């Protein structure tokens, strides 16, 4: 706890680095807003709940965008919340447009800006045909990179443009060995119609950036890994590679691996319980609605066009998802 | 030989040809009895193909036997007729040359007192050589090939002129025939009625089977009692009211289809007998009673007597028709007004949606882009609302099913049986009115068009209150763009059906929108969305897709958040309600209970609310103040804490030294026990 480096920072900087002040300010603000309600059950309890929710990552639900964006932890929590809430959409296999994903984002954060979603979509679609449909996992990972590292990516974009602009098709440049300058000319062959920039050069610039950058960056080692596989790459190629890199994903810690993306046993259990409570699903053993959820439910009316009822268990089977979907192709 | 109708002119058959007014024509025995002689000019080659020498010789000799003498004449190409003096005495005033295969009129010599001349069934092409027969009263040229009426100018005494079944194209050259009583031109090619205005003694005019397309120019025929126009192509009739004596008018087998085209008949007081059979008008359902209603003087219609019963029925039906017409006229006027208003509202909506910095040009392009929309809107006059806005008078006079309640050029409110339709955002204000319980109770469908959804959200509580039975909501051109917006519908009492028209509602393009609606509004147990029934599977899918969202939204939110969000919703509802006029305090409690019940109904979804963009921004603005204060407060706290921390650290550093000094001081003090004791005692006494 009392590590020397912790004591090495002056007070403000220490607090700022851990974003303690942000949370404290927010907590006090929330307290002020809801003082009538909170005063009923005690301020101590309020603070307990608040910081508990910060730890659990539920504090960002239905909050305004400025708060969600404020700290890396908030961003990661938001990503995780989005994944948990809409994993089922992905599991269902639906391909959605960028606007629809944006809509889902807005369900959790009413003023989420469209630009971010658009940028994320650009990563997936390689800046092409913005109306295309995207799968849930593609979008989610791209969105993660875009949202979590948004400032970093902006700087990277600037660097990339610089490198591109410095292109001179007829110049053969001798690469220097110093890493401090990021305005070097790339080495090119004579009749070069190659796009993008050279990977190693690019990496040098990025490494520089990471050192200087205040905001969060992906671990440089992993970035190097990404860049070492290719000779040249475009900006969006780089981003796609970032988004698909497992290591970076794990370093972030918000989302599970791609393979496990659709798995969340705890939530699945919860879902089953909810499904059972749908009205009209008369399986008499399970038909007692939990009071907290559906207290004044009226019994289903006679003559409502329900299909023959399935046994509750049948709906668990994964395969039913897709066939039911095609059956309902009336939309 | 002579068409039968003319026989009845006098009513009796007699040989008296001398009576001026009543013409009696002997029946067909005449031709056999007459003995005629023809003289033929043998020198005629040049008559253009009409005179066939051989034919004449052959035919005449066979038909008439040896009574006919064909003699040459001084005039080229015309045969000269001579009768035996016996004949002349017997039938001094009549001459029949029926079926003589004549191609020209022969010159008739020495018969100047002839009164009746019959040329029926020949091939005569021109009326000639009869100018000398100035006493002629009856001229029959039925069934010939005459192409033009001519050569009659000297026949001033002519009373009956029969030119039926010829090839006459034009009525002309009748100027001098002022005594004409019967003019028969049936079976010709006449296209117009003309040049008959001077025939003031004409009683019968037969123009059947011609090519007439209309009837006019009938003035001057003051004696006309019968006008036969059957089998023409007449589409309209005029001037018949200028015929003071007309009693019988036959219009069978023409092209009359409306009464308006023969409306002058209504003004003719003399008409008693009319026929319309074979016209399109006779097929109409309203034919009989319209004719009877408009022509009260009629005695026979289509050759059948008109009974009193029929007349009475006709007037009754006519009255009903009048009523209906007036009613439908009113309706169509109202519909037109509505249509204009809706177009206007649509235009305004479009302008709103495509807002550009340069509004002026946008307006211009909008106007030119939509020429189909009524140009009369550009005159922009406000149509006064059809019904006043006070409370009670809404119910009075609302008998017809279609009620346009408020029609101005900016919005339209309409109640049509069970549907309340609102066009344009101004229409939302109409929800504030005092609707009668009956009207409001009947409304089951509410339709919103050209109104921003965010504005609709604000009046949903009012809707819930005033129209408790509204179960079906329809949205068209309401700018539904986010799934979130459907959260706002949860506050209603109940919704059975939802129709979101793709036009103007981009949200319909989302794949998941229906499932989201079913999920969020699951407590309504909706039956239909956009016309398709909701099935069990749909509900399951909806829950499957979004169930976790609900779970997260309810159970994972800290308690204080839950309360604050739900509290927010309640507060918002109150705020919307408070903004309405005429709010009674008693209602507050009702809504309190309502929203409590609502909260209880669906806790796990209740946190999914929709705040309109404006309200949201307002709230964020409000919070800014608080945030600033918090920041300052925290800064103060931090400063304090860091100060204390600094002091603490400083103390930590200085403490060892201070401790040593303290101990040293103490030890030095106690070195001399006696003086220390004295010092302490001194200190105690000093304290008193």
Automatic annotation (TrEMBL), chain A:
Keywords for the protein's UniProt record, in alphabetical order: Cytoplasm, Cytoskeleton, Microtubule, Phosphoprotein
Segments crossing the lipid bilayer: none
GO biological process: cilium disassembly; microtubule polymerization; regulation of protein complex stability
Subcellular location: Cytoplasm, Cytoskeleton, Microtubule organizing center, Centrosome, Centriolar satellite
Region (Disordered): 287-331
Predominant cellular place of this UniProt entry's protein: cytoplasm
InterPro entries: CSTPP1
Record field: compositional bias (Acidic residues): 318-331
Molecular functions per Gene Ontology: protein-macromolecule adaptor activity
Any one Gene Ontology cellular component term annotated for this protein: microtubule
Binding partners and assembly: Interacts with PCM1. Interacts with TTLL1, TPGS1, TPGS2 and LRRC49; the interactions link CSTPP1 to the complex TPGC. Binds to alpha-tubulin.
Family to which the UniProt record says this protein belongs: Belongs to the CSTPP1 family.
Function summary: Regulator of the tubulin polyglutamylase complex (TPGC) that controls cytoskeletal organization, nuclear shape, and cilium disassembly by balancing microtubule and actin assembly. Regulates the assembly and stability of the TPGC and thereby modulates polyglutamylation of the microtubule, which antagonizes MAP4 binding.
Listed name of the protein: Centriolar satellite-associated tubulin polyglutamylase complex regulator 1
Species: Panthera tigris altaica (Siberian tiger)
UniProtKB/TrEMBL annotation, chain B:
Coiled-coil annotated residue ranges, if any: 306-339
Identification of the protein by name: Leucine-rich repeat-containing protein 49
Main location: cytoplasm
Protein function: Subunit of the tubulin polyglutamylase complex (TPGC). The complex mediates cilia and flagella polyglutamylation which is essential for their biogenesis and motility.
A GO term from the CC aspect: centriolar satellite
Stretch list, region Disordered: 352-380
PANTHER family cross-referenced by the UniProt entry: LEUCINE-RICH REPEAT-CONTAINING PROTEIN 49, PROTEIN PHOSPHATASE 1 REGULATORY SUBUNIT SDS22-RELATED
Biased composition (Polar residues): 354-379
Subcellular compartments: Cytoplasm, Cytoskeleton, Microtubule organizing center, Centrosome, Centriolar satellite
InterPro entries in the record: Cilia_flagella_integrity, Leu-rich_rpt, Leu-rich_rpt_4, Leu-rich_rpt_typical-subtyp, LRR_dom_sf
Quaternary assembly: Part of the neuronal tubulin polyglutamylase complex which contains TPGS1, TPGS2, TTLL1, LRRC49 and NICN1. Interacts with PCM1; TTLL1, TPGS1, TPGS2 and LRRC49.
Taxonomic path: Eukaryota, Metazoa, Chordata, Craniata, Vertebrata
Keywords for this protein: Coiled coil, Cytoplasm, Cytoskeleton, Leucine-rich repeat, Microtubule, Repeat
One Pfam family of this chain: LRR_9
Repeat in keyword set: yes
């Amino acid at each position: 706890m009392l590590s020397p480096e912790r004591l090495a920072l002056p007070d403000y900087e220490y607090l700022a680095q851990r974003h303690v002040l942000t949370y404290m300010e927010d907590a006090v603000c929330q307290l002020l807003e809801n003082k009538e309600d909170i005063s009923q059950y005690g301020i101590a309890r309020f603070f307990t709940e608040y910081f508990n929710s910060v730890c659990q990552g539920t504090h960002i639900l239905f909050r305004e965008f400025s708060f969600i964006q404020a700290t890396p932890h908030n961003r990661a929590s938001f990503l995780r919340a989005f994944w948990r809430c809409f994993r089922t959409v992905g599991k269902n296999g639906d391909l959605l447009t960028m606007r629809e994903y944006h809509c889902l984002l807005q369900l959790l954060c009413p003023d989420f800006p469209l630009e971010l979603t658009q940028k994320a979509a650009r990563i997936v679609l390689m800046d092409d045909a913005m109306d295309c449909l995207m799968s849930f996992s593609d979008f989610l990972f791209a969105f993660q990179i875009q949202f979590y590292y948004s400032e970093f990516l902006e700087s990277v974009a600037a660097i990339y443009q610089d490198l591109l602009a410095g292109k001179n098709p007829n110049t053969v440049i001798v690469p220097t060995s110093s890493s401090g300058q990021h305005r070097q000319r790339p080495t090119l062959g004579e009749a070069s119609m190659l796009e993008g920039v050279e990977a190693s050069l690019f990496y040098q610039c990025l490494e520089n950036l990471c050192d200087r950058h205040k905001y969060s960056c992906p671990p440089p080692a992993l970035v190097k890994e990404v860049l070492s596989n290719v000779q040249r790459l475009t900006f969006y190629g780089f981003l796609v590679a970032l988004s698909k890199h497992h290591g970076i994903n794990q370093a972030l810690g918000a989302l599970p691996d791609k393979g496990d993306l659709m798995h969340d046993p705890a939530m699945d259990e919860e879902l089953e319980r909810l499904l059972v409570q749908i009205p009209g699903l008369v399986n008499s053993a399970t038909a007692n609605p939990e009071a907290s959820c559906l207290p004044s439910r009226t019994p289903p009316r006679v003559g409502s066009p329900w299909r023959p009822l399935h046994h509750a268990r049948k709906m668990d089977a994964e395969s039913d998802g897709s066939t039911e979907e095609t059956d309902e192709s009336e939309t | 030989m002579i068409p039968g109708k003319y026989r009845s002119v006098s009513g009796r058959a007699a040989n008296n040809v001398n009576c001026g007014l009543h013409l009696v024509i002997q029946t067909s025995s005449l031709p056999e009895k007459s003995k005629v002689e023809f003289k033929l000019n043998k020198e005629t080659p040049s008559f253009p193909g009409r005179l066939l020498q051989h034919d004449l010789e052959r035919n005449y000799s066979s038909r008439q036997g040896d009574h006919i003498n064909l003699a040459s004449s001084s005039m080229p190409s015309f045969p000269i007729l001579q009768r035996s003096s016996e004949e002349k005495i017997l039938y001094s005033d009549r001459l029949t040359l029926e079926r003589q295969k004549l191609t020209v009129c022969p010159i008739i010599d020495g018969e100047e007192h002839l009164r009746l001349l019959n040329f029926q069934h020949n091939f005569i092409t021109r009326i000639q050589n009869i100018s000398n027969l100035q006493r002629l009263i009856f001229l029959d040229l039925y069934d010939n090939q005459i192409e033009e009426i001519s050569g009659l100018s000297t026949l001033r005494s002519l009373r009956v002129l029969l030119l039926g079944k010829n090839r006459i194209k034009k009525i002309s050259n009748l100027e001098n025939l002022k005594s004409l009583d019967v003019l028969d031109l049936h079976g010709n090619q006449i296209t117009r009625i003309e040049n008959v205005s001077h025939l003031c003694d004409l009683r019968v005019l037969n123009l059947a089977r011609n090519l007439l397309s209309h009837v006019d120019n009938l003035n001057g025929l003051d004696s006309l009692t019968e006008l036969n126009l059957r089998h023409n192509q007449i589409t309209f009739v005029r001037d018949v009211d200028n015929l003071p004596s007309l009693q019988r008018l036959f219009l069978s087998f023409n092209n009359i289809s409306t009464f308006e085209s023969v409306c002058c008949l209504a003004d003719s007081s003399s008409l008693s007998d009319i026929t319309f059979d074979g016209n399109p008008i006779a097929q109409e359902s309203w034919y009989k009673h319209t004719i009877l209603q408009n022509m009260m003087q009629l005695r026979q219609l289509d050759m059948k007597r008109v009974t009193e019963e029929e007349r009475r029925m006709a007037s009754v039906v006519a009255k009903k028709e009048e009523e209906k017409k007036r009613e439908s006229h009113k309706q169509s006027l109202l519909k037109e007004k509505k249509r204009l208003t809706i177009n206007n509202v649509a235009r305004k909506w479009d302008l709103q949606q495509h807002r550009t910095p340069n509004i002026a040009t946008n307006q211009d392009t909008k106007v030119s882009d939509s020429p189909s929309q009524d140009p009369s809107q550009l005159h922009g006059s406000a149509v006064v609302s059809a019904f006043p806005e006070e409370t009670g008078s809404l119910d009075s006079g609302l008998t017809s099913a279609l009620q346009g309640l408020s029609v101005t050029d900016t919005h339209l409110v309409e109640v049509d049986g069970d549907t309340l339709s609102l066009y344009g955002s101004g229409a939302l204000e109409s929800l504030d009115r005092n609707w009668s319980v009956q009207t409001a109770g009947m409304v089951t469908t509410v339709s919103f068009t050209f109104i921003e959804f965010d504005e609709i959200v604000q009046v949903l509580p009012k809707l819930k209150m005033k129209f408790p039975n509204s179960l079906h909501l329809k949205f068209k051109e309401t700018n539904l763009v986010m799934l979130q917006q459907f959260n706002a519908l949860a506050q209603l009492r109940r919704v059975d059906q939802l129709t979101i028209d793709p036009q103007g509602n981009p949200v319909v393009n989302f794949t998941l929108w229906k499932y989201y609606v079913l999920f969020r509004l699951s407590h309504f147990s909706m039956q239909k969305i956009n016309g398709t029934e909701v099935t069990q599977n749909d509900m399951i899918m909806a829950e499957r897709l979004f169930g976790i969202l609900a779970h997260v939204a309810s159970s994972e939110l800290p308690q204080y958040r839950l309360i604050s969000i739900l509290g927010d919703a309640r507060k918002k509802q109150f705020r919307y309600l408070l903004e309405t006029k005429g709010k009674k305090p008693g209602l507050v409690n009702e809504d309190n209970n309502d929203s409590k019940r609502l909260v209880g109904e669906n806790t796990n979804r209740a946190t999914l609310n929709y705040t309109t963009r404006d309200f949201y921004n307002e709230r964020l603005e409000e919070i800014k103040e608080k945030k600033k204060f918090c920041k300052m407060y925290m800064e103060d706290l931090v400063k304090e804490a860091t100060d204390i921390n600094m002091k603490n650290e400083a103390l930590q550093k200085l403490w060892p030294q201070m401790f040593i000094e303290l101990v040293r001081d103490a030890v030095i003090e106690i070195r001399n026990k006696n003086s220390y004791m004295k010092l302490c005692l001194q200190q105690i006494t000093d304290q008193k």
